[in-house]
Fold:
Amino acid sequence: MFGLFKKKQVEYFSPAEKDTIVEAIRKAEQRTSGEVRIYVEAKCPKADPVQRAGQIFCKLKMDQTTARNGVLLYLAMEDHRLAIYGDQGIHQSVGDIFWKNAVDKMLAQFNQQDFVAGIVQIIADIGTALETHFPYDEKGDKNELPDDIVFGK
Structure:
């Protein structure tokens, strides 16, 4: 009976857009041992989206990669908030300026209402940074985390 009153999840991306984003993740991860994930929700329940991204990062067990080189792209669509959260391995390699520039670049695309292009470009940029510091190892590399988009409530 209560299922009748369940709120339907908002679709922020078309199926084709989702496929484009997931393909960008797969393409980026082909060149690196690093991991990229995307988490999308309507509203950010924290004052600071970076804090929320850190919370989600741990919830998705991204802090358990072998080289500590996972990166989470966090989007709160209705609040127009975002954050990029990198684990200690990649953060120590690229530093705060890289993340700030990545967010600024993505916001420029978002301000033009080109969300998917902004996401795909940042995934490519993150993939390049991961490749530089954590290149793909044919012998021992495995995909440690799913490549799908995670949708919150």
Q: What stands out?
A: The domain at 13-151 is CATH 3.10.310.50 (Diaminopimelate Epimerase; Chain A, domain 1). The mean pLDDT is 91. Strands lie at 35-41, 70-76, 81-86, 149-151. The chain has one domain: 13-151.
